[in-house]
Amino acid sequence: MPITLADWLTYLESLHPKTIALGLERVAQVKQRLNLQPDFPVIVVGGTNGKGSVCAMLESILHAAGYRVGCYTSPHLLHYNERVRIAKKQVSDVELCKSFEKIEQVRGAAFSGTSEVPLTYFEFGTLAAMQCFIEHKVDVAILEVGLGGRLDAVNVFDNDCAVIASVDIDHTDYLGDTREQIAFEKAGIFRSGKMAICADADVPLAMAEHAEKIGAQLWRIGREFGFDECSPTPTPPPEGEGLSFPSPSGGGLGRGPMQWNYHSTVNTRSSLPYPALRGAFQLHNASAALAALDVLKERLPVSMEAVRRGLGEVQLAGRFQFVPGKPTLILDVAHNPHAARSLAQNLAGLPPCPNTYAVFAMLKDKDMAGVVAALDPHIDTWLAAGIDTPRGATPEKLEQVLQQCRVRGEIKICKNISAALRYAYNAAGENDRIIVFGSFYTVAEVMAAKGLSIPI
């Protein structure tokens, strides 16, 4: 068997002929062999975008409340261990290797004369995460859906509350090419007799119908729960200064006493601090997290002090993340049109600057034109770069898309992301802005180049 975590990850990548193979039969078989039966509350979070933020806020608030929280998210940026956290600490290489070894032992043909079960990289990781959570006796587990929901590996575990952060077009090869089709797949994480929460203001009919059909109680933002701002947006400070965040309406980066109120059919939380995550939709995400806590308040009571502390301390790399220094460097993993529109709204709320450079690299199976169209008004120079992965679009392909979209800015081809970043720093003045976006791969390579670490 493999020994190091790096060896294991290389091995896992070779186990299944497909990187993505949706379906629960394989992972359910191995789950049964491992007897993975969590006796703690499980929250499953899905959505086209925003699910990482919801997970981070839930984790931060519940940790502040004194609970031992297990959190499983994907993908990682720098190290695989980012995916599995217990008490806000990444699980060690040794623990992950032990979990992988146990899974390998029971999935093989030698296990009680059963047939070998091929697992994907993500399925293997999902089982390992839950195994770690059970062994560490966590008080609650937060599981982020990898893709879709209905056939995603995390859905093999029943949840006590399901959250959908948003619904938009992405992964059309697997989920369908309409919003209604995608909504049905995401609603697959709902459970009969349990609560389902949707933070998208436009709840697709397919999602509401599925909830009703299976007997899940659906809470919709703007109806069963919601938020309102209780102070005006103050004058924005200089970029990159202080722990300050835009209003959900896309306003300025206020450092003043901005507050907001949360309300639901069963609870009210007033005068809350803004989440310590920048972005136009973070109050939608925060409201969804608080709605989930309302649902579970009998088993996991959370004080106002814990909510305030958790919102103030939450961190999540690569989501409209400002890197200190000049010129301003902003990292965002936006990789589909919905996320790109959110990024564009966030950029529109910033003070103007002389020039904005885009370090831009995407996967070729994504809607490149949709992302470009959303951000075109905010970019003066596009630095199109390649991603070193078979799924990566070439710089030449990105150039073609940019030309077809007739972007207003200048287009330059760069061999790779590092070269694009170097060009941006050489060309930009101290009052200019560099935006890095298009993929988790894009942000990860820039974080590595800048020597940045993942905040915990």
Key terms for this structure?
single chain; about 450 residues; alpha/beta; UDP-N-acetylmuramoyl-L-alanine:D-glutamate ligase; Protein-Tyrosine Phosphatase, Chain A; eight-stranded mixed sheet; 15 helices; 19 strands; about 35% helix; globular
Which SSEs are present, and which pair or pack?
Blueprint (H helix, E strand, L loop, with lengths): L4 H11 L9 H10 L7 E5 L4 H14 L4 E4 L11 E3 L2 E2 L2 H15 L13 H15 L4 E5 L16 E4 L7 H4 L3 H8 L8 E4 L6 H10 L2 E4 L4 E5 L15 E2 L6 E2 L4 E6 L3 E6 L8 H14 L8 H10 L7 E3 L4 E4 L5 H12 L7 E5 L7 H8 L5 E4 L10 H10 L5 E4 L3 H11 L5 E5 L2 H10 L7
Question: How would you describe this structure to a colleague?
Answer:
The structure is a single chain. With 456 residues, the chain is of the alpha/beta class. It has two domains: 5-313, Mur-like, catalytic domain (UDP-N-acetylmuramoyl-L-alanine:D-glutamate ligase, 3-Layer(aba) Sandwich); 321-449, Alpha-Beta Complex (Protein-Tyrosine Phosphatase, Chain A), CATH 3.90.190. The chain contains 15 helices and 19 strands. The strands form four sheets. Strands 4-3-2-5-1-6-7-8 form an eight-stranded mixed β-sheet, sandwiched between helices. It has a six-stranded mixed β-sheet with strand order 14-15-19-16-17-18. The protein has a three-stranded antiparallel β-sheet with strand order 9-12-13, with helices on one face. A hairpin with a 4-residue loop joins strand 14 (321-323) and strand 15 (328-331). Helix 11 runs parallel beside helix 12. The longest helix is centred in the N-terminal third of the chain and has 15 residues, at 93-107. The protein is globular.
